[in-house]
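Amino Acid Chain and Its Fold in Token Form
===========================================
Structure side: the spatial fold of the chain, written down as a series of whole-number tokens.
Position: the record begins directly beneath this header, with no further notes in between.
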Amino acid sequence: MTATPPASPGPHGVRPAALAVLDALERWAFRPGPAGAVAPPDLRARIAAIDVLPEEGEPFEAVLDDLGDRVLAHGVRPWDPACLAHLHAPTLPEAAAAELAIGATNQSLDSYDQAPAATLLEDHLVRWLAGHLGLPPTASGVLTAGGTASNLLGLLLARDHAAGPGEPAVADHGLPPEATGWRIVASADAHFSVARAAAVLGLGRSAVVPVRVGDEGGIDVAALDRTLDDLDRAGRRVIALVGTAGTTDRGAVDPLPALADRAAARGAWFHVDAAVGVAFAFSDRLRPRLAGLERADSVTADLHKLCWQPIGASVLLAADGRRLGVVRHPSDYLDRPDDDPLDPDDPLGDGDGTGGGAGGAVPCNLVARSLDTSRRFDALKVVASLRTLGRRRLGAGVEHLVDTAAAVAGTITATPDLELVVPPSSITVLFRWHPPGVAEADLDAANAAIQRELFAQGLAV
């Protein structure tokens, strides 16, 4: 006897399932307060009691009701005014709703023949974003799961570039002996994913040389020059300079033009981690903060931070799209050599639409640019929601965040027992409880305890 396969979503079944999810969200997730207030041992016990795969299935509504009680009710609610931590954004309703279409249609963004229209929409989105940021017409890119993945891909391109033209590709032959002297220079406030990327790429975390930052949180150019001189004297080769546009801790932007100048003078790769700051490009008032970004060799841009997209929606852009070909590994079943989406005469596949393969196989296979193979159609939610919102409203929203941070800083300064640690550079406010009579040595522990207690009681994140 042959078992009946599970029903396909197809044109049926999605509507009642979607309505059931909406009912569960309204009942369990959309509650007041920034988070649930269940102690970790109790929450662990509730979740450990979930039967992941029962012998016989259960009605979907009943499953959602149980998961709502055990899981959805106890999540963080980023739309609540008291949820202020990290860069965990509330999402545009249109983007969240478009996730249903992404899941239901299940396009696989690796080869053109698995997702023809989806492939072209993602390609269109990344080229549009590159153009909006001022990158050259040769720029291309790919969506990734997050800024860490985008930084890894950008620095992989830097590592391959370091070998130089005519030399064996690092991706094919491994690191050359001289790679022990390769260095990546970044600010001390650069995201930890830069060091993680160096570790994954075989260079080691110690290959990342941190440079101190100035009072406003951007890299100190004088300190940078001293660091570069020290590396020269030590016989070390700087293969990449990393600029940050929107640091995680302060929201600061490095002096990108100065970094671009120094990278160009050394023939080093210039990567800009604009995971946070890319949103400034949509505001006429804030866009000048990104001056110099257009000179980058690669750019990380997270749209799931200040552009209110559901996680994940990050982008890695390369000023020369042909560089992305270093990750390509043709295979008979997926990205055939005769597809040749990186034709040297039409590297981005946008000429006559035939690509470079025999018989004009495909415009492009995005797996030729990506470290992932199977990949979601996240471009759909981005395009659908940004078109609905419009640049003017998006830019105004980002400006509102920056203005709110400045206003909060003013309130903190005027409030006894609170101390503004540093003036905000953009959207992040660093402050602490600092009443008279409390020893400096005790302040860190006290502030950490306050933060944990507020979270435990469900009062603030």
Notes: Confidence is low (pLDDT under 50) at residues 341-345, 347-360. Residues 391-413 form the longest helix (23 residues). The radius of gyration is 24 Å.
